[in-house]
Amino acid sequence: MKMTIDGVDIHFEAFGNGEPILCLHGWNEDGSVFKSKAYKALLKDCQVYAIDLPGFGKSGGLEHYSFPCLNELLERFAAYIGLEDFQLLGQCMGGILALDYAIRHPERVRKLVLVETMIYFPAWLNLLLIKHLNSWVLKWMLKRKLGLRLLELHPAFKNSRRDKRLSAMLEKVDIAQSIEYIRLMKRYSRYDHIERSKNLKMPVTIITTVNTFRQVKKTAEDLSRVLENVRRFTVPGKNHLIYVD
Questions:
Q1: Can you give the pTM of this predicted structure?
Q2: DSSP 6
Q3: At what angle do helices 67-81 and 93-104 cross, to 10 degrees?
Q4: What is the Cα–Cα distance from 16 to 240, expressed in whole angstroms?
Q5: How far is Cα 4 from Cα 76, in angstroms, rounded to an integer?
């Protein structure tokens, strides 16, 4: 299914039964991750709306990316499917977008779920902000077998290249759009996220895995410290790509 916002097609899928939940995938992924075994178990009692964020999956890209722009997209998507309020889940980069939306529109979010989310910018991603170098490096990392093997050296990506879902998503990645999201995440890292999160009153669930990045663990620890209504879970036997079966 798709909707069109200001001339840009936004693809989404709806499945399941129960409480409505909008699901935002991570960097270089698409909404298909929410059909994995891990997410089917987590979302078994939900009516899932899995969006392909602009520039990923089957959705068209934007000329300019900003948090107000992506917040507006979520507002218009919710109106399109007729939701006044809803649960909101974000994985990794999608968790950053979900957290920012919840902070700006707390009256709209019944429950916030953050999966493998990092609000702190990893230093190595700065390599992908170097002009003329970033496109080549990102293409080599994502679309070459050797690049994926090297990524697997980090426990957070172990066994990732064997996953057909991930391989299919990476083949479709638009490198220029991907870099725009890196710039967006870099800008977000300059916000005082902890201070901004202190006023959140809705239930928040933070899910991390055993083999993940230190920035993910620090995010979970710092948010758990300031949020009033928070639950935290660690998933055994999984890594950052929690949807890899």
A1: 0.94
A2: T
A3: 80
A4: 24
A5: 10
Q: In what order do the strands lie in the sheet with 230-239?
A: 2-5, 8-15, 46-51, 19-24, 86-91, 109-115, 204-211, 230-239
Structure tokens at 45: 């009692």
pLDDT band at 182 (very low <50, low <70, confident <90, very high): very high
pLDDT(225) > 80: yes
Q: Which two tokens stand for residue 234?
A: 């660690």
Q: Whole-angstrom Cα distance, residue 138 to residue 143?
A: 8
Q: Which residue has the tokens 């083949």?
A: 171
Q: Strands 46-51, 19-24: parallel, antiparallel or unpaired by DSSP?
A: parallel
In which region does residue 237 sit, left (phi positive, over 0), alpha (psi from -120 to 50) or beta (all else)? left
Q: Are strands 46-51 and 8-15 parallel, antiparallel or unpaired?
A: antiparallel
C-alpha separations of 233 from 80, 83, 160, 224 in Å: 33, 28, 22, 11
In this prediction, residue 181 carries a pLDDT of 95
Helix 134-143 crosses helix 175-188 at what angle (to 10 degrees)?
110
Backbone angles phi, psi at 10, to 5 degrees: -115, 115
* Residue 36 pLDDT: 93
Q: Which two tokens stand for residue 44?
A: 């078994």
Q: What is the pLDDT of residues 103-121, one digit of tens each?
A: 999 999 999 999 999 999 9
